[in-house]
Write a structure and sequence with these properties.
The complex is a heterodimer of chains A (about 450) and B (about 290). With about 450 residues, chain A is an alpha+beta fold. Chain A is built from 12 helices and 12 strands. Helix content of chain A is about 60%, strand content about 15%. In chain A, strands 2-1-12-11-10-9 form a 6-stranded antiparallel sheet. The longest helix of chain A is centred in the last third of the chain and has 39 residues. Chain B has 2 domains: about 60 residues, no CATH class; about 220 residues, MetI-like fold, CATH 1.10.3720.10. Classes of the chains: A alpha+beta (about 450), B mainly alpha (about 290).
Chain lengths: ~450, ~290
């Protein structure tokens, strides 16, 4: 420290050092305790203790289980005796009438094999469930007397739920529910069922080599078509949604760059001598930036309705402000010597800008544009969830149904991959276009500091 | 370029070569420009087709909605102070979400950054793992985590806070580790030689070097997080965004409230931007002076 080099007395030096130490001590202990106090305040302000009660852990369990597994419903209408099988109980995943998965034997008495010795039999009148280690449970649904259940002797275990009109048994192998009108069995499987083909496709259940063989025989188009139009996973819609999201980011970012560049000239000291215009342009940039993408989205959605155009314009408007600010700072740092050099050869104003200014600012501009392209892919997902466009919309829709968690998991994976891909792509392009830039982010960091 | 070793070229040759290069450059530039314009136009057409309303029909209506809101708000201008007071708690909640998530994200980001920098990591073998964790945290948009957590935890500020904190941790983890790479490892080695353990080495050897940069990035993140927390409110995570959606879905008759919320949000964003911009300016310039001395 420079203080020690002066001709102070020992006492003065000691006092100064003491002072320094006590201040350091105050900062070292004061700052963490301040942060801690704030976090404790937030802990109570957000009512985190009450959260534990309000939280629905059951929801969480279904969510996690559902995201990597699916269930097949085997259902009997107790009045007509008709049996139907459907994956996830959805019509889109229903087996054709009179057909069922191979672990179900249809007949007068339908036998459903849940494996590990668990067997459910839908008899003409009575439903039976053999549970290994417990015994056989019989339930007879009648229209008058409700569901009459017969259990093995002893206490009713807590995984069996019986009331007058309903019996539910949940075991590791599956789940059986009997009500007056319906008997239903769920069997759980790991994986995402029907991901490639739905049941109504002739290619369902074919192995990969078989499919390759069929494709070689000229059925490639039909196979792709069946995959592309899969009603359960909607690959076509998902592909379009991802394309829309990237489109929003692309149009918004580049459009903002194109609008902001000429405006940025108006906001610089060295290119625009008019002080009032400069001031006005800068305030316009501040305004569109301050209004924020959320409000622009809301306003624009009223004019254009939901869709990718609204999202693209919201990004465009907000980023025009940000780019305007960044570009005008870059333009103010331009070296005037090159401009003068070009001018000395008799260049007019547009030529001076084109050959004297633009080459100097291009690296900054490009690296900013590419950086924002990646970050706007993420914004486009968020804006899509509000305005209704792109993968954000599909995600919110899937979450609102509260049961298609495997689709939610699928979309989340796709979104993460999409953002990482855009990150990689913009980084690659930046390195290709701007030679000599080893650390792409550092440029941004410098600018941020400068702003 | 002309080959200088093969005898001195004539002026005509040089000129021909030069104009050839220029022409080729111009052609490439032209093609690139055409491709770019075509991409933009095609993209715009596609986006326009897939939108509910088209650009041509809608562009003159852009200001209808703001005008409607403003005129109604103007009619009830005397209710504005009451509305501002009414929604102030929501504003505090939005700011709290942003501040708490920035704090938690900064702490987690610091940890991730230290763990993924060579020479500082506690377990050098796990550097790639921590890098990937930061990448994934950064890639997840906040809304994804928020929506899933809202389903489990119910609406409120906590899902938003967790969602933003995770993204912040990833984003700051990456920026911080770049700062760390520029830090000198000599203080760490010095502390090691006197028997300091890992946390002491980091706290006394690294943090003082990188502190100003860390704070500067964290402040920038706070600006971003204020906006994010307002947006997340819109999908049910509390704060100003939530109130905004409510007052908007009521439609006409409640636009005075919507206008008050717009105003609060706008002023907050501008004020936070200004304050943090100035603080960051002081931090970086201060540290530069310190480095030179």
């Amino acid at each position: 420290m420079s203080t020690f080099a002066t001709n102070l007395t020992i006492d003065e030096l000691k006092a100064e050092a003491d002072h320094l130490f006590s201040r350091k001590r105050l900062v070292n202990f004061g700052l963490p305790s301040l942060v801690l106090t704030y976090l404790i305040y937030v802990f109570f302000a957000f009512d985190v203790p009450g959260l534990a009660e309000r939280a629905n852990w059951e929801n969480g369990k279904t969510l996690v289980a559902d995201s990597y597994s699916y269930k097949t419903h085997i259902e009997r209408d107790n009045r007509t005796g008709e049996i139907s099988a459907a994956i996830e109980g959805e019509r889109k995943g229903a087996y054709p009438a009179g057909e069922a998965p191979d672990w179900v034997t249809l007949g007068e008495t339908t036998v459903i094999d849940l494996e590990d010795g668990h067997v459910v039999r839908f008899g003409p009148r009575t439903v039976e469930y053999d549970i290994p280690g417990y015994g056989t449970v019989r339930a007879t649904p009648t229209r008058v007397a409700g569901v009459q259940a017969e259990l093995p002797a002893g206490d009713v275990p807590d995984w069996i739920n019986i009331s007058k009109n309903r019996m539910a048994i949940t075991t590791d192998a599956g789940r059986l529910t009997v009500t007056r009108n319906r008997s239903e069995v769920f069997r759980y499987f790991t994986g995402w069922e029907l991901y490639f083909f739905t049941l109504d496709s002739p290619y369902y259940g074919k192995s990969f080599p078989q499919l390759v063989g069929l494709a070689a025989n000229g059925e490639a188009g039909a196979i792709l078509n069946d995959f592309w139009t899969n009603k359960m996973w909607r690959h076509q819609d998902v592909a379009w949604a991802i394309f829309e999201t990237i489109l929003m980011a692309f149009l918004g970012t580049l459009g903002a760059g194109m609008v902001a560049l000429p405006l940025a000239f108006l906001a610089t000291r060295n290119f625009n001598p008019l002080r009032s215009v400069r001031f006005l342009t800068r305030r316009v940039f501040d305004f569109v930036r301050g209004v924020d993408a959320l409000i622009w989205t809301v306003v624009l959605a009223r004019a254009f309705g939901p869709g990718p155009l609204t999202g693209a314009l919201a990004i465009l408007v907000t980023d025009t402000g940000t780019f305007g600010k960044i570009f005008s700072e870059a333009l103010e740092n331009v070296d005037q010597k090159q401009v003068e050099g070009v001018q000395s050869t008799g260049a007019n104003a547009p030529q001076r800008y084109r050959f004297g200014v633009i080459p100097q600012v291009t690296p900054v501009l490009l690296s900013q544009l590419l950086y924002f392209l990646e970050s706007n892919t993420r914004s486009a997902t968020v804006i899509g969830a509000i305005t209704g466009g792109g993968i954000g919309l599909l995600l919110t829709q899937a979450i609102i149904t509260q049961k298609d968690w495997e689709e939610v998991a699928y979309y989340i994976v796709l979104i993460i991959l999409m953002v990482m891909l855009m990150d990689w792509f913009s980084g690659w392009l930046r390195r290709r276009l701007i030679q000599g830039e080893t650390a792409p982010r550092r440029k941004k960091a410098k600018l941020v500091k400068a702003s | 370029m002309t080959d200088l070793t093969a005898g001195s070229p004539t002026v005509d040759q040089i000129r021909a070569d030069y104009s050839e290069t220029t022409r080729r450059k111009r052609v490439y530039g032209g093609i690139l420009l055409i491709v770019f314009v075509a991409l933009m136009a095609a993209g715009f057409r596609t986006a326009d087709d897939r939108n509910a309303g088209s650009f041509v029909d809608g562009w003159h209506r852009i200001f209808d909605y703001p005008a409607e809101v403003l005129s109604e708000a103007w009619d009830k201008i005397d209710a504005l102070p009451a509305n501002l007071v009414k929604f102030f708690p929501a504003l505090v909640e939005t700011i709290n979400i942003a501040a708490a998530s920035t704090l938690i994200g900064t702490i987690a980001g610091t940890f991730l950054a230290l763990m993924s920098t060579r020479g500082m990591a506690l377990w050098p073998a796990l550097i790639p793992l921590f890098r990937r964790i930061a990448d994934i945290c950064r890639a997840i948009p906040e809304i994804v985590i928020a929506l899933v957590l809202i389903f489990i935890l119910g609406g409120g500020p906590v899902p938003a806070m967790i969602a933003i904190a995770i993204h912040t941790a990833g984003a700051l983890g990456k920026l911080f580790s770049e700062v760390n790479e520029n830090a000198s490892l000599k203080p760490v080695a010095g502390l090691h030689s006197v028997g300091a353990n890992w946390s002491q080495r980091m706290y006394l050897g690294v943090i003082p070097q990188v502190g100003p940069n860390y704070v500067s990035y964290a402040l920038l993140r706070f600006e971003i997080n204020i906006r994010a927390s307002a947006i997340l409110g819109f999908v049910g995570a509390g704060g100003l965004g939530y109130e905004l959606r409510n007052s908007m879905s009521w439609g006409q008759g409640r636009y005075d409230e919507a206008a008050a919320i717009f105003l609060l949000l706008f002023v907050t964003i501008v004020v936070v931007d200004q304050i943090s911009g100035q603080l960051r300016d002081r931090l970086t310039h201060g540290s530069e002076k310190g480095a030179r001395a």
